[in-house]
Amino acid sequence: MPELKSYAVWDVSTRWFHWINALCVIMLAFVGFMILNAGNLDISNAGKVALKKMHIWIGFVFVLNLTWRIVWAFLGNRYARWQSVFPGGRGYLHALRSYLAAFIAGRPEQYLGHNPAGRLGIAAVFLLITLQAITGLILAGTDLFYPPIGPWIAHWIAAPGIAPESLIPYAPERYDAASYESMRAFRKPFAVAHLYSFYGLVVVVILHVTAVIITELREGGSIISAMFTGRKIISKRPVDEERNGHD
């Protein structure tokens, strides 16, 4: 019977980021679905504004959480840092080929951090959630005049004699018609990118969860529980083990 060893892998900040991010994505998806289908759900303009405010405030938590994770990738432990999260670096392609060949052959390699294939998925997730964060902040400014760009948008579209800080959503009588149309044209590509990057994120998250379950079943390593406890239990010598890495 193989000897099991326990390794400290995911630090507290990495684990908190993971679960806060997952919760935010679920909540944003639910509220976003309601906003997109407000007409079919017979939601009033006031209701849409309330939903958008909720969406934006959850989005602010999402952005702050992502920002902290980006910072932590320079400060965290070995497995939290960029070189262990994203694909690339010396020997990466060789490691990817070796991992895939071993997986197909039914003798999968075990990693403490993300395996080479998993790093491709994590890169896709980070790319999509970053795109969601950036486009979401822009849409928050164009929809409800929220920071960081909301005050600038308000100055752009306010009608002559109307104080920009007094603008409210769905009040066209307060907007300069030409400026408002120009703003909507500016907004459109960000709205499209926000929507379709979300669809892409849904696909990638489904693939990620599927891959985690398959990897857990094929390789072991307590991948799922490790994101709660921070520790992986490995039955083989991990490919990315450091000297004195277990206890």
Describe, in plain words, how this protein is organized in 3D:
This protein is mainly alpha-helical and 247 residues long. The chain has one domain (5-88, 96-234): Fumarate Reductase Cytochrome B subunit. Helices cover 65% and strands 3% of the residues. The chain is built from 8 helices and 2 strands; from the N terminus they run E-H-H-H-H-H-H-H-H-E. A two-stranded antiparallel sheet has the order 1-2. Helix 1 (12-36) packs antiparallel against helix 2 and helix 5 (116-144) packs antiparallel against helix 7.
Number of helices: 8
Q: Gyration radius, to the nearest Å?
A: 23 Å
CATH topology grouping: Fumarate Reductase Cytochrome B subunit
Q: What is the helical fraction, as a range of percent?
A: 55-70%
CATH top level is: Mainly Alpha
Whole-number tally of structural domains: 1
Overall body shape? elongated
Q: Strands across the major sheet, in which order?
A: 1-2
CATH superfamily: Transmembrane di-heme cytochromes, Chain C
Mean pLDDT: 92
Distance between the termini: 19 Å
Q: What class would the helix/strand composition place it in?
A: mainly alpha
Number of strands: 2
Q: Give the low-pLDDT segments.
A: 243-247
Largest sheet: 2 strands, antiparallel
User: Architecture in CATH?
Assistant: Up-down Bundle
β-strand percent reads under 5%
* Element pattern in H and E: EHHHHHHHHE
Give keywords:
8 helices, mainly alpha, 247 residues, Fumarate Reductase Cytochrome B subunit, 2 strands, disordered C terminus
What's the topology here?
Elements: E1 5-8, H1 12-36, H2 45-75, H3 82-85, H4 92-104, H5 116-144, H6 150-157, H7 177-219, H8 223-229, E2 231-234
Antiparallel strand pairs: 1-2
Helix pairs in contact: 1-2, 2-5, 5-6, 5-7
